[in-house]
Specification:
heterodimer, A: alpha/beta, Rossmann fold, 2 domains, 7-stranded parallel beta sheet, 5-stranded parallel beta sheet, 8 helices, 18 strands, about 30% helix, B: alpha/beta, 9-stranded mixed beta sheet, two-stranded antiparallel sheet, 7 helices, about 25% helix
Chain lengths: ~325, ~260
């Protein structure tokens, strides 16, 4: 049987948005292939029948539920390998995010399967799936298909839209998995620790985002001042959050928030893909960076090549003056 | 403890990268350098070695690639690796992620490391996946994008940022860990280390030396096929201002924002 198996990540009783997008995409593609769309979930008691059934709303007809440790990739590789072995799905699909990459990669090795990552679209061609993957800083897009089965597709963050195309509940099937010895050698000590103050950036119309180019934690003051003058909030890149310069709750990108404000002003941000995927839907993107070759200039509406330490304070003053006048 | 660090040569950041329309793979000709993300992995190995919590017998840099990849190994050794291993064979050309991961796992098996470190991604292919592929072949636990490692004799305590915040994970050795660039500031090699790098032991191995099944690697062993290379959807190029007179620049930015009613 052909068919698509999608991994659905959950946390504290709710499914991840990117996973729901992937389940929706899987259902859409399965329909075109004339096959079924299934999902796999791995976790503890919070994976209730009621919660699992809701994946039917997004088009999954069956949900394979496996008891296992959450937040780690290798137990899910064991689970998906078993489900695919027993049910013969032709494709495994993942939404964007850290775990999807790890699980998809592990499954590639386990099943001697082809893998494509950072996929932005999937199409059906001659009864098979073809993945579209942007490469080289998005300067080209390659069409990739698979030799043999299964084919593994790891989506880019926010690539797949959530669609409630299903009719009714999914059937929940419990699967017993004996985990590989090495899968039990990672132990989650603490999960989901929030570092830094809790700030809300998702509702802001204007975001001033800071990156490594600010030079030091204190550099964020320039962003704070500009954001205040514009009536916006401050956001940050992963690099500076990892470095402890700013709050995790303000982080944009692959393992952070996805935003689409009216104005996104990026200061000292080079524009890596992992950042881009979290903010490219912004209406207006302004970038200030001293490196004229920074990738962010490829997707900004207004780019300023210059020293942010000189530009930001004067810009803040000019906006204050404009508003006062 | 024996640490292997996987490294890779990538086209220099200043070189324009392009696809080869014949092989449908990345054109890897032109100036090359050690993948910048890998320098963090070497530094992590050096910090474990110098940290004193465990006894590290040696740090071995391992790469797969054409003859030119030797330069990446020299760089890795100049940054502190004790010796290096170069897996090189015409049969490996045009391997995809799946085939590359298998081949690297085979060469690592011949070294029996307690810890395999690598950078979280490569500067060219942008794959965050190779560590997890290698780990599954080696049947070792694995974690990617790690930004802090505490080492004990038989286990590591790792921190990383995942979907819902920061996770702390205990990993029993042997293990495969890919590190994020926030983990450390890589050191600069000393002139002496650069000069001495070429004298350190470098073993060159072919597929036969590490029991690689040739049908599983190269273009024929790959499980994906690139069917076409297309340009991205056209996007109107943004306006660029070179800041020469900052007052003037700021005036232009304010006018631009005002035009779009962003200053309310």
């Amino acid at each position: 049987m052909a068919g698509i198996l999608t991994y659905a990540l959950h946390y504290e009783g709710a499914f991840n948005k990117n996973s729901l997008g992937a389940v929706s995409e899987g259902a859409k593609l399965a329909k075109e292939l004339g096959a079924e769309s299934h999902a796999v979930v791995v976790g503890g008691d919070d994976l209730t029948d009621d919660l699992c059934k809701t994946l039917g709303k997004y088009g999954a007809t069956k949900v394979f539920r496996v008891k296992g440790e959450e937040g780690l990739a290798q137990p899910v590789v064991d689970a998906m390998a078993k489900v695919i072995e027993e049910n013969g799905q032709s494709y495994a699909l993942f939404g964007g995010g850290l775990l999807g990459f790890e699980i998809g990669a592990g499954l590639t090795a386990r099943l001697n399967a082809g893998v494509t990552m950072e996929v932005t679209a999937v199409k059906v061609q001659d009864g098979k799936l073809v993945a579209e993957r942007p490469i080289l800083q998005d300067s080209a897009i390659v069409d990739v298909d698979y030799v043999g089965e299964p084919g593994i597709i790891i989506g880019r963050l926010n690539a797949f839209e959530i669609a409630e195309g299903g009719d009714g509940d999914a059937e929940v099937v419990d699967v017993e998995v004996s985990f590989s010895e090495f899968s039990n050698k990672c132990k989650m000590v603490q999960r989901g620790e929030q570092r830094g103050a809790d700030v809300n950036i998702e509702d802001a119309d204007i975001l001033v985002a800071g990156g490594r180019g600010l030079g030091k934690a204190e550099g964020f003051q320039l962003c704070e001042d500009l954001a205040e003058s514009l009536g916006g909030a401050v956001a940050a890149t992963r690099a500076v959050v990892d470095a402890g310069w700013y709050s995790y709750s303000a982080q944009i990108g692959q393992t952070g928030k996805t935003v689409a404000p009216k104005l996104y002003l990026a200061a000292g941000i080079s524009g890596a893909i992992q950042h881009k995927v979290g903010m490219q839907a912004s209406e207006n993107i302004v970038a200030i960076n001293k490196d004229q070759n920074a990738p962010i200039f490829e997707f900004s509406d207004l780019g300023i090549v210059g020293d942010l330490n000189k530009i930001l304070p004067k810009l803040t003053e000019a906006i204050k003056a404009k508003k006062g006048g | 403890m024996k640490i292997c660090v996987l490294v890779k040569e990538v086209p220099d950041a200043a070189v324009e990268k392009r696809m080869d329309s014949n092989s449908m793979r990345l054109d890897r000709s032109g100036e090359k350098n050690l993948n910048p993300f890998d320098t963090h992995a070497i530094e992590a190995a050096m910090q474990i070695k110098e940290g004193g919590a465990v006894d590290v017998e040696e740090v071995v840099a391992v790469t797969m690639g054409p003859e030119s990849a030797v330069r990446a190994l020299h760089k890795a050794v100049s940054l502190g690796a004790d010796r290096s291993v170069h897996l090189t064979d015409d049969a490996l050309a045009d391997s995809d992620v799946s085939a590359t991961g298998y081949a690297l796992a085979q060469v690592l098996k011949s070294e029996s490391p307690d810890l395999v470190l690598l950078g979280q991604q490569s500067d060219d292919g942008e794959c965050y996946t190779i560590g997890a592929v290698v780990a599954d072949h080696l049947e070792m636990p694995s974690l990617t994008q790690v930004i802090k490692i505490d080492t004990a004799a038989d286990k590591l305590t790792c921190e990383r940022q995942a979907e819902y915040g920061y996770d702390t994970v205990e990993v029993t050795l042997p293990a495969v860990i890919s590190v994020g660039d926030a983990i450390n500031e890589p050191r600069y090699p000393s002139l002496k280390a650069i000069m001495g790098a070429k004298k350190k032991q470098l073993d060159s191995k072919g597929t036969g030396d590490v029991e690689i099944d040739a049908s599983k690697v190269g273009a024929d062993g790959s499980r994906t096929r690139v069917l076409a290379i297309n340009p991205p959807p056209a996007k109107q190029a943004g306006e660029i201002i070179e800041d020469e007179d900052t007052n003037e620049t700021v005036e232009k930015i304010v006018a631009w924002l005002d035009e779009r009613k962003l200053i309310a």
